[in-house]
Design brief:
- It is a single chain.
- This protein has 344 residues and is an alpha/beta fold.
- The chain has one domain: Thiamin diphosphate (ThDP)-binding fold, Pyr/PP domains (Rossmann fold, 3-Layer(aba) Sandwich).
- The chain has a six-stranded parallel sheet with strand order 2-1-3-4-8-7, with helices on both faces.
- Strand 3, helix 6 and strand 4 form a beta-alpha-beta unit.
């Protein structure tokens, strides 16, 4: 029996009567808007030369982070890629901590030491963002093994891009997690491109994650990653299955990034008509309209949007005012005991 109905982009419909209560819908909308506004502010700060190096924005992909972040329990773990701002914010990490880290300031989540591609907030269950493609899948699997061994009922949720499905670690982690029935949910955010290369150009199956699920004894789960309700319901079911000891799930969520792969990429390799079609499926205005259709007053929606804008402005001011980290920070947390002295 399939875990969920496959919801493709073409098949997705407004789910105004699917039993999701208004409070949850407002939380899903708030999460999406918060991610969008923080990442837009991060882009502005980059143009002001206040964010160094590169970073990878998830503008257009917010529904996936919001859906899973809302469905997860506080003790569950998130494992992110270098495009991890969205998932970090979705777990409740502070805007000031995220923006401060991107700016290399003392108020950052890691004291300004890690930057954009290594966001971590253990207190919120965010177990790191990983810049090496596929490196975190075995780590997420190991965390799930730990939860199973200790009987803690925790679930690990691991997010990765479509390109990761052609990495050996993907297949190794899926195989072991399935054999041992580990409480882990693997989520492929398929935005159609591996950096600059279409995933379809280098993969022999149409759906790089979902079409390979059967190889590991798992159901094919292909969903509309731009529909927060579909993502939330799928996340609920997969997480509940993992928590009940029924093993892992592999979910492929179809989505699209509005911009290039990173700050240095103008994204000109994508067909204009493709970009235009996906921009019409922007998850945030679609979800805003769904709230209105389900009876939420526009004043309540505006209050959320205006409140988040104030929070982003306050977080920006706090991050700008925070000093750069002291030089001594480089000697902190090199070893697990918090220090840096060499040990044999």
């Amino acid at each position: 029996m399939a875990l969920v109905k496959v919801h493709t982009v073409a098949e997705s419909r407004p789910l105004t009567n699917d039993g999701i209560d208004t409070a949850t819908r407002l939380a899903l909308y708030r999460s999406q808007v918060e991610i969008r506004m923080v990442e837009k502010r991060a882009y502005d700060l980059f143009l002001q030369n206040l964010i160094k190096g590169t970073s990878h924005l998830a503008i257009g992909q917010e529904a996936i982070a919001a859906g899973f972040g809302t469905a997860m329990l506080p003790g569950d773990w998130s494992f992110c890629t270098y495009r991890g701002h969205a998932h970090t914010l979705a777990r409740g990490s502070s805007m000031t901590g995220v923006l401060g880290e991107l700016m290399g300031r003392e108020c950052g989540l890691m004291g300004g030491k890690g930057g954009s591609m290594h966001l971590t907030d253990v207190d919120k269950g965010v177990m790191g963002s990983y810049a090496i493609i596929g490196a975190h899948l075995p780590i997420a699997m190991g965390a799930a093994w730990s939860a199973q061994y200790r009987g803690t009922q925790q679930v690990a949720v691991c997010f990765f891009g479509d390109g990761t499905t052609n990495i050996g670690a993907f297949h190794e982690a899926l195989s072991m997690a399935s054999i041992w029935k580990l409480p882990v949910v693997f989520v492929c955010e398929n935005n159609l491109y591996m950096e600059y290369t279409p995933i379809s150009a280098v993969t022999p199956v149409k759906n790089p994650a979902a079409d390979r699920a059967a190889a590991y004894g798992l159901d094919k789960i292909l969903i509309d990653g731009n529909d927060a309700d579909v993502v939330y319901r799928t996340a609920q079911m997969a997480i509940a299955r993992a928590r009940a000891g029924e093993g892992p799930s592999l979910i492929e969520a179809l989505t699209y990034r509005h911009h290039g792969h990173s700050r240095a990429d103008p994204g000109k390799y994508r067909p204009a008509e493709e970009v235009a079609a996906w921009l019409k499926r922007d998850p945030i205005p679609l979800y805003r309209q769904r709230l209105l259709d389900s009876g939420v007053a526009e004043a309540a929606i505006l209050a959320i949007e205006e409140g988040i804008k104030r929070e982003v402005d306050q977080a920006t001011a706090a991050a700008k005012a925070s000093p750069a980290p002291a030089d001594g920070l480089i000697f902190k947390d090199v070893w697990a005991d918090g220090g840096w002295a060499w040990r044999n």
